[in-house]
UniProtKB/TrEMBL annotation:
This is Glucose 1-dehydrogenase. Pfam families: adh_short_C2 (PF13561). It is an enzyme of class 1 (oxidoreductase). GO terms for molecular function: glucose 1-dehydrogenase [NAD(P)+] activity. Its EC number is 1.1.1.47. It comes from Alkalicaulis satelles. The keyword Cell inner membrane does not apply.
Amino acid sequence: MSGRLSGKTAVITGGASGIGRATVELFLAEGANVVIGDVQDALGASVAQTSPNAVYQHADVTREADVKALIDAAVERFGRIDILFSNAGAAERDEGFASIDEASFNRVMQLHLASALYGIKHAEPHMRAQKSGAIITTSSVAAEGTTYGPILYSIAKSAVLHMTRLAAVRLAADKVRVNAIQPGLIATAIFGRALGLDQETSEAKAAVMGSIAELMQPLPVAGQGRDIAEAVLYLASDASRFVTGQSFCVDGGLTAGQVPNPEGGVFKPLADLFGVDPA
């Protein structure tokens, strides 16, 4: 199937690399017009050059004015905005509660929570007026468990989920749908960047991240940006016309639980402790 987004215009933040770029590429292949927002100007411009239906604009999503400008650009260039994918973000270093300060709290909340709020705020009037629209926010498996991410990141992504539900209920009367995507361990450059590596080195290390992810989840395959993009496509398209206020977890089964030990199943550690043969 192709053309699932024909005639639709999408704004995608963080669209220059990783999950965002994979989503931009898939949306363009499905017939959408796409406005790409990012702070990686060279990468963003190169993505936009692949299609006459793509436009790149520098956008620091921690600044409300930049988010508004992206949405305004979509309306000015293509006449409407049908889809908003608030995807921009970054992996964060882990730290204990005692190490958290006001500056780090504000930075993480602005990037991961406020940016999505700004997107909803400025997309809402256009979507309400046209009586249609799909907004997809990016949460994380870290919103579900206490061991899937750093403290501040996990708090922010949990808040994104609740904000998504609030927006879904408030905007439903005008047929604007709002849903969240929850990626698991996805092999992208975001983790290397969080550790201070440059983009090129981080991209090269992404495959290593994928091999590690295979060992941490039930499904023994590395998650790719395209896996998330396909889920976002569903939430953005008319195929999900009856879906709103939901979170879509795409994680290889990570949040479902760990794989039991093949020799003794879930009771193997306990059997070892008691000196019993689980068979």
